[in-house]
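Checked the freezer inventory, then went back to the computational side. Two predictions to log before the end of the day. The first one is the construct we discussed on Monday; recording sequence and tokens without edits.
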Amino acid sequence: MKNKKRPLIVLFLLLVLGLAGAAYWWSHRAPPTTHELTLYGNIDIRQVQLAFNDAGRVVELAVQEGDAVRKGQVVARIDAVRYQDTVDRAQAALLAQQSELAKLRAGSRPQEIAQARAAVSAALAAQANAEATYARQKTLVDSGFLPKQSLDNITQQRKTAAADVQRAQQALSLALQGPRKEDIEAAQALVQADKSALALAQRQLADTVLRAPDDGVVENRILEVGDMAAPQTPVITIALNNPVWVRAYVPETELGKLAPGMHASIESDSFPGQSFEGWIGSISPTAEFTPKSVETTELRAQLVYRVRVYACNPTQKLRLGMPVTVRVPLLNNPPQATSEHVCQH
């Protein structure tokens, strides 16, 4: 009986040793070499809340929720009457100031110079007449035929005539020289100020039209026709189409394999067999606990780093919140500048 049990014991010991050896080998084996890093995450998008730069009453909303919009497309307008009036007034002020500057640059007209010369001639004639009258009066006063008071009167007239000549000559000199340089420069500055005022008024008029900043889909009409818009009040919310991005998480042990600018492909269960081009956009500098939305048992209790993976979405198949798988090749995948990643529309 003892002889029959001995082979069974030996067989059992060999089995235990084999299992122990297999366990030791499994625990100390080198990890398999992979050439691809797989991440899991959800699609996120950029949203833009459009608002007017100035206050006004909404007179048109050209889109509805769900409408696709193109970059530059008109989506809303506010009442532009007041802003058009401001433009008209600024244009009139600019034209008036430009005319004033042109007049200063042109200098005195020939008629004005001729008028100044005539005034000088008239003043000289009056002075000559006053001198002759003074000479006659003085002779008569010296002879005793006229009182001295008469000579005093004509003396005053003589001085007045001389002053009139000086004034007329100075007026002729100003007419010949034209406006001062400082007056022209001041007029030029006023023209520039009026141009700036006109440009501001035209900008405010253009801002009465609200345009889409990029391609996207209208998510929400916050205001309606008749509401008062203000710079702090959003009017429409637009979800931008391209690029969307994936919010994924990478464990600390895999962090060194990633770098911003690396190429990636994105897959979704909604489109089996199809992948979307993408690239690593940014990696968070701080670690965090894996969010509950990442349903990977191995990662759930570990610290991870958030990764943003941009995705080209020209056909708008990737939607907000969609779970996706990101595959990042680790061979022949050097980081590239962000500008080199261009989504094909």
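The second is the one RB wanted added to the comparison set:
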Amino acid sequence: MAMLQVKDFGKRFTIHHLGKTRQAVEHIHFSLEQGEFLGIVGKSGSGKSTILKSIYRTYRPDEGSIIYNSARYGFIDLTNATEREILYLRKHEIGYVSQFLNVMPRTTSRELVEKALLEMGATEQAAKIEAEKALTHFELDPKLWDHYPNTFSGGEKLRLNIAMATVKKPRLLLLDEPTASLDQQSKIKVREIIEKLKASGTTLVGIFHDIEFMDGLCDHVFDMQFSQDKSVKEGVIHES
């Protein structure tokens, strides 16, 4: 069975002060086996991030189902999972990398990565060692390891965000423009980690505007242009 199945998914947003409702996405279908990587492409405003945030349950979908094969719960529909179940999955199984860093204040970058590892059951010593490896891999200056990330540049925050998510080796990893503000060398580091995660069995769904970055990395490409055409409901996934 698939690791992730999205069936006839749709999401609407209500603009309360105008009393209007807008359909963001509809008729979204795709399925991924363990270890596969789906890249989502499309113009700005086409609903790419809405799909990722609905899988992560930042948004609650309005139509369809999102079936995830959980190590703890078995096949679970994320659209109607309880808050307790969602919190567990975010902590232990599903990772999310966005362009923005949202972390607890007065927590250093080193402590943030260590905390991610401790949540997965690592010992304090192992968490310390693996956190330093991750921070080194993503070339975060050691001088910043014991500083608060609210003072970091956009690229530094993004590299820390990626380190926090990938160090946990999640079963499912969602990537929302993870290379948006990175230089070429940092993009290569991200690609190396993605390749290692895929090889270890992590299933990935990612949004990229950098088509060259996706080349040879994604197993399938989901084109939002086709998904939003009401005459096309099937066959929107293309082999990469």
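For RB: The chain has one domain: 36-62+82-239. The beta strands are 4-15, 20-32, 37-41, 63-70, 74-77, 94-97, 172-176, 203-207, 220-223, 237-239. Let me know if you want it refolded.
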